[in-house]
Amino acid sequence: MVLIFEYRAKIIIMRLLFLFLLSILTIGFLLPTITSIDNSLSNFLLTKVYSTVCHQESAKCISIGGASMLVCARCAGIYAGALVSGLFSLLTLVRPISTKVLILSVIPLVIDVFFTFTGVYNYSQSIAFASGLAFGGILYLLVIAELENLFSNKSFKGNE
Amino acid sequence: MNKKYLSALVCGFGASVLTTIPGVQTIACCLLVPVASAISIFLYNKSQTELIKIQTGTGIFLGLLTAVFAALFASGFEIIITYITRTSDLVTSMPQAEKVVKDMNLGPAAEESMELLKQMVSEIQSKGFSFLYAFLITTTNLITYSIFGMLGGLIGTAVINKRNQAV
Q1: Which of B99 and A71 is assigned the larger pLDDT?
Q2: How many domains, chain A?
């Protein structure tokens, strides 16, 4: 009983830690839109950090009050979806996600990229954001489930 | 060479080459390094025929290794391209940054950081190499690629293990 309680506590701490790290990543790309403090070097560094994971095309980045986010609408959607999933995962049990669900969540994203790339319709920030939202949410649940799997394996091996 | 390192090296190199091609990142976005990590695990799984289940820890380690190789190669490519062309995105964005600092009158901290940026730009334009610039791009690449590489490793392991179980 004590073992199960300890395990649950460790799982919650791990989820909180993971959510905290994700929040730092999210605040990082939101920084130009939420603060007016400007420092050329820090701006350059932040832009450089996020440029390795996003193309940062200004037309595809969401702007708030004249300042653009450091990632595109699709990436912002992925992070937002992961954050929402992260908050929900604190309250409920995370069931293992099947590969089919992950593939299903990628389909809207791939279709949107394909249609905008081929010119079937023009790029829309809201569609890109929405397509990223589902993918980010499912991806987060998959990562959390896998981390917990690793964690539980280690716990039980340690108690053998 | 250990097959574990070989698959990470190949995929890391492949990802770094793709990052230098203009337009590829517009499509692949943040998925380039995670996908490379997942492919690295897939190759590792193929090379280890007797392996039924990949340990999650091994997957994360392989993802990290792929990301580190990708970061080092990508930084190397960027340094070489900067040396040949004597320009970089820092040089092209400099006039705009200068204008912002002047217009907003941001104080001594902004002025000092501007001086550092100016020093990097002048070194790139005159010699084609700035140690500070090289250090900054390598560090930023290592940090971000490592995070996304480990995530890719984790997801890749989950997907491959589930596929193996189904077979």
Answers
A1: A71
A2: 1
- Closest residue of chain B to A103, computed from CA coordinates: B159
Spell out where B84-150 has E strands: none
Residue A41, chain B, CB below 8 Å: the answer is yes
Q: Higher model confidence: residue B96 or residue B127?
A: B127
Segment A16-26 shows an average pLDDT of 91
- Alpha helices (H) in chain A, listed in sequence order: 2-34, 40-51, 73-91, 99-118, 125-159
Q: What is the ipTM of this complex?
A: 0.73
Q: Within the 87-146 window of chain B, which residues sit less than 8 Å (CB to CB) from chain A?
A: 89-90, 93, 97, 100-101, 104, 106, 109-110, 113-114, 116-117, 136-137, 140-141, 143-145
Range of B74's domain? 3-86+131-166
Q: Are residues B73 and B18 in the same domain?
A: yes
Structure confidence at residue B96 (pLDDT) = 73
Helix or strand (DSSP H, E) at A71: strand A67-72
At A160 the pLDDT is: 42
Measuring CA to CA, which residue among A135, A13, A12, A31 is closest to residue A79? A135
Q: Is the same domain home to B77 and B94?
A: no
Nearest chain B Cα to A141, which residue? Answer: B155
B138 in the same domain as B58: yes
A112, closest residue in chain B (CA to CA): B27
The pLDDT tens digits of the residues spanning B146-159 come to 988 998 998 889 88
**For tokens 């350059």, what's the residue?**
A44
Q: Report the run of H or E that residue A61 belongs to, with start and end.
A: strand A61-64
B6, B143, A142, B57: CA torsion to nearest 10: 50
Residue partners of B96: CB distance under 8 A and separation at least 6: none
